[in-house]
Amino acid sequence: MTDFPHDHVRRELRDTKRAHDASLPGFEAALDQAFDPSSDTSEAAKHQLIGVPTRRQMLKLGGLTIASTALLAACVEPPSTDQIPVTGTLIPVPTTTAPEDPGSPETDATLVLTALSLELLAVDTYQAALDNNWLQVELLVEVARYFQEQHQDHAGALAQQARRLGQNPDEIVANPYLTAEVIAPAVAEIQAGGGADVVQTLTLTLARDIEIAAQQTYTKAGGILTTPELRQTIMSIGGIEARHSAVLATVLGIQPVPFAFGPTVAAAPPDSYIAPNGPVSQSSSSDPAEDEPTEES
Amino acid sequence: MAFRALRRTVAEIDERHPDAVMTTGDHSSDEPARTDRSASRRGFLTRAATGGALAVGASALSISSGVPRALAQTTEGDGSEPTAGTTPGTEPTAPAAPAGEPPIVEGTDLVLVVFLQSIELAASEAYNAMVETGKLAPAVAQTARQFTLNHTEHAKALAELAGGQATTVANPRLISELTPRIAAATTRDELATIAYELEESIAATYAATLGQFDAFQAAGEASRILPVDSQQAIVWSQVLYPDTNEWATQITRWIPNFQSASGAINITEYAAS
User: Fold this and answer.
1) Residue A241 pLDDT more than 70?
2) Are residues A152 and A262 in the same domain?
3) At A90, is the secondary structure helix, strand, or coil?
4) What is the largest CA-CA distance in chain A?
5) Where among A73, A92, A111 does a domain terminate?
6) Do A246 and B207 make contact, defined as CB atoms within 8 angstroms?
7) Non-local CB neighbours of A181 within 8 Å, separated by 6+ positions
8) Residues A106 and A86 in one domain
9) Is A153 in Cβ contact with B235 (below 8 Å)?
10) Minimum distance, in Å, between the CA of residue A193 and any CA atom of chain B
């Protein structure tokens, strides 16, 4: 018999059901909009909406499934030895088990460095869009530039947090895994052309995907990071990425507020995590001025 | 158009004509929310408790600009920090005598969760009242209904954390201030302004509480809700300025660099019942 936190599982199930119920009205509206014959919704967007993976996503999912299975297999508890010899009576376990705090200083450092790599990824991607004139409408160019500047500021704030955790943020670059698995194929698709409108739509879609990945990664981190300061910092950024994604969704004709709760299914996968690059220290700074990001940072 | 230069210009105009803008405080921020950096967890509650005496100036400003006091932030200095009081305050205490399921969070976390729950319930009631005025166009009314459901779901999620100590009552003071304002609104834009300011204030309140929560469960729930309220604020900004070019002239207001805790609803002034 394993020591299984039943209450936690029940809570998780209730959460799942509630999220499911809450998402239905918005999802139905999104379906109506996407599959309206008069709408210009792309096939890729429809695939994304109804959860049918594209070929690229299928490949990624396959890898993730294998990794997850391996992780689950590793997490299975060995047969319990909590058994009284002779009678075979099992020692009773508590009926309620508080869920374990999922965080640790090492995880904090991993999440902060990964977040930094996502911000740098966003900066680079917007830069590519600007350099290659993938956006035709001047207003969209200005908005892209503004979002890019904000991601640069977010990177500065995260770099400061990384330093406080004993990490070297200067070693972090745009997330290598996502660059290879997501950005490169998307850029290839954009570069294949198909007309200015297609290129612009693909660019906006990629930008939205990045914003969503960042937002959902930070939402996930908000429930894992171990200090209020780190949680507050990450969500002061996550809230802004959510606004970015809502604006881009509006431009693309997609529901700007698709869910009642910030989901985490599109968060950066574990394969993209950036491991600590130095001994992890607990946050110790008490001087707020030390942490203030600047526009130049 | 350089948005940063524009933002500075807007800030200068705001400074010269505070009555001409409908901001609830300085939502624009170049800094991450950091109420906890200069203040302890106890300090947040103490300041909240003593903020009333110092809120007079903010209240006067909010009244003159048509903003309810509920949404006014007591600030000083650069506006990014709640005002520290000089008189010791009384920390709100967790309700006694639990009934029903035991709460998942405890202590100050429980107080904050119940407070947030009362705010979510108030937001649901406010949206219902807005829809019932009949002044919203069908599509906008549908948006309001959707956001009502979202706030109701948020309240339910928070209620699970609070267990038997969850509240079923919408925040009394918030409701008492929003209700007459909604009733007095004569146009769609007036209602959209109320909705926009409400969402901004709730998002700021979550940003503030994230710097106070001890338990990861409470922080996790707040992290799932804050982005949605931020997105709902964006939608109302788009209702207010349907012309994208016009909307973009104020993009630094709609999308500050960081989600600030400035403009958060004060837990003592707006205590859950």
Assistant:
1) yes
2) yes
3) strand
4) 81
5) A92
6) no
7) A56, A60
8) no
9) no
10) 27
| CATH of residue A108 | 1.20.1260.10
Inform me whether the pLDDT recorded for A133 exceeds 70. Answer: yes
Is B189's Cβ below 8 Å from some Cβ in A? no
Q: Would you state the structure tokens that stand for residue B131, as one six-digit string?
A: 């829809």
- My answer on whether A111 and A247 are in the same domain is yes
Give the model's pLDDT for residue B195: 98
**Interface list for A 206-225 with B (CB within 8 A):** 215, 218-225
Helices (H), chain A: 6-34, 43-50, 55-75, 105-131, 138-164, 176-178, 184-191, 196-222, 228-252, 288-291
pTM: 0.70
| Whether A261 contacts A145, CB under 8 Å | no
Report B:44-103 residues touching A (Cβ under 8 A). none
The domain containing residue A29 runs over which residues? Answer: 1-92
Count: domains in chain A: 2
Closest-CA residue of B relative to A98 is B104
Taking the domain B100-254, which CATH number applies? 1.20.1260.10
What is residue B40's DSSP assignment?
-
Q: Which residues contact B160 (CB under 8 A, 6 or more apart)?
A: A11, A14, A15, B104, B166
Does A237 contact B1 at a Cβ distance shorter than 8 Å?
no
Helix H or strand E segment including B120: helix B107-132
> By the CB < 8 Å criterion, does A137 face chain B?
no
Beta strands in B63-131 (DSSP E): 75-76, 81-82
A169 in the same domain as A75: no
> d(Cα B146, Cα A98) in Å, to the nearest integer?
34
pLDDT in tens, B36-59: 333 344 433 433 333 332 232 232
In this complex, the residue of B160, B222, B255 whose CB is nearest that of residue A243 is: B255
B40 in contact with A at a CB cutoff of 8 Å?
Answer: no
Q: Does A119 share its domain with A88?
A: no
Tell whether B32 is within 8 A of chain A (Cβ).
Answer: yes
Tokens describing residue B224: 């799932």
Does A296 lie at the interface with B, CB-CB under 8 angstroms? no
CA separation for the pair A134, A209 (Å, rounded)? 16
Q: Give the DSSP letter of residue A170.
A: G
The shortest C-alpha distance from B35 to chain A (Å) reads 9
- B195 interfacial to chain A (CB closer than 8 Å): no
Residues A31 and A172 in one domain: no
Q: Indicate the pLDDT class of residue A70, thresholds 50, 70 and 90.
A: very low
B39 vs chain A: nearest CA distance in angstroms? 10
Q: Do A105 and A250 share a domain, yes or no? A: yes
Set of chain A residues whose Cβ sits within 8 Å of the Cβ of B261: 232, 236
Claim to verify: residue A148 and residue A12 sit in the same structural domain = no
β-bridge partners, A90: A83
Residue of chain A whose Cα is closest to the Cα of B157: A15
How is residue B90 written in tokens?
A: 């009384």
Question: Cβ-count burial of A261 within 10 angstroms (0-12 exposed, 13-18 middle, 19+ buried)?
Answer: buried
